Amino acid sequence: MTIEERAALLDRATATGQAVPQLTSDGPMSLEDAYAVQHAGIALRERRGERLAGVKLGFTSKAKAEQMGVSDVIIGSLTDRMRIEDGGTFDVGRGVHPRVEPEVAFRLGPDAELLAVAPALEIIDSRYRDFRFSLADVVADNTSASAFVLGPWTRIDQVDALAVELLFDGETVATGSTADILGDPLRALPAAQRMAAEYGHRLLDGSVLLAGAATAAVALKAGTHVEARVAGLGSVSVRTE
Ligand code: OOG
């Protein structure tokens, strides 16, 4: 399969909610090719009118890396259509097998500097069967990006040891600390800059950087009030249907 054919396969899986076999089940794929597939998939979205809204990092925490058995930090793209308003709804039935993670988000300025920080929810949804993949597979699949929700923005100060909690209908389902994200989520910026330069992502003025999960991801089902609380930053929520 060409790069474009691989991107189209994953794009269709996203649209239909039908999982596909891992791309590497046919043989190995280089990280370069995997990022080429990711960019080709974003190009398909842009042709449909979606606009780049930012970037996300994956596997910045040990909990996530251990959950998925993959340890290198990866970068993916976010578009405006992936954004859900705080308190908005997410349709679980349109996904393959969506999961949610509590995160922190940064807003970037004109020189890719950090302007503000917010509590965030990221909904990830691997397009691969059984939510299983190699590093190259998940990179090609735009790092499982599906949707994201941003809470209120705060000026950045120190965000290195804030308690993070994920709640379903008011019950705690996962806890962690922002220290679990690269030791300090502020390290997400140099990490993103390095990876963006290496793999061809753009850190645009006013865009969002999702720093990666502070906990393992938790499977979503319909009819749940999902909330992330980050001490000192406040909370952000979404309702699933
Ligand atoms: C890949 C995305 C991981 C994170 O925050 O670590 C990620 C996946 O686990 O499907 O977004």
Secondary structure elements and pairings:
Layout (H helix, E strand, L loop, with lengths): L2 H14 L14 H17 L4 E7 L3 H7 L5 E6 L3 E2 L4 E2 L8 E10 L5 E11 L10 H6 L4 E6 L3 E2 L7 E6 L2 E7 L10 H12 L8 E6 L4 E2 L5 E6 L3 E7 L1
Parallel strand pairs: 1-11, 3-7, 4-14
Antiparallel strand pairs: 1-2, 5-6, 5-11, 5-12, 6-7, 6-8, 9-10, 9-13, 13-14
The structure holds 2-oxoadipic acid.
List low-confidence stretches: none
CA-atom Rg in angstroms: 16 Å
Total strand segments: 14
Shape descriptor reads globular
Q: Could you describe the largest sheet, including whether it forms a barrel?
A: 9 strands, mixed
The averaged pLDDT comes out at 96
CATH topology name, in short, is: Fumarylacetoacetate hydrolase, domain 2
Coarse structural class: alpha+beta
- Quote the beta fraction: 25-35%
General description of the model:
The structure is a single chain. This protein is of the alpha+beta class. It has a single domain, classed as Alpha-Beta Complex (Fumarylacetoacetate hydrolase, domain 2). Helices cover 23% and strands 33% of the residues. The chain has helices spanning 3-16, 31-47, 62-68, 135-140, 188-199, and strands at residues 52-58, 74-79, 83-84, 89-90, 99-108, 114-124, 145-150, 154-155, 163-168, 171-177, 208-213, 218-219, 225-230, 234-240. The strands form 2 sheets. Strands 1, 2, 3, 5, 6, 7, 8, 11 and 12 form a 9-stranded mixed β-sheet that branches. Strands 4-14-13-9-10 form a 5-stranded mixed β-sheet, with no helix packed on it. A hairpin with a 3-residue loop joins strand 13 (225-230) and strand 14. Helix 1 packs across helix 2. The protein starts with a helix and ends with a strand. 2-oxoadipic acid (OOG) is lined by residues 58-60, 64, 68, 101, 122, 124, 126, 138, 143-144, 212-213.
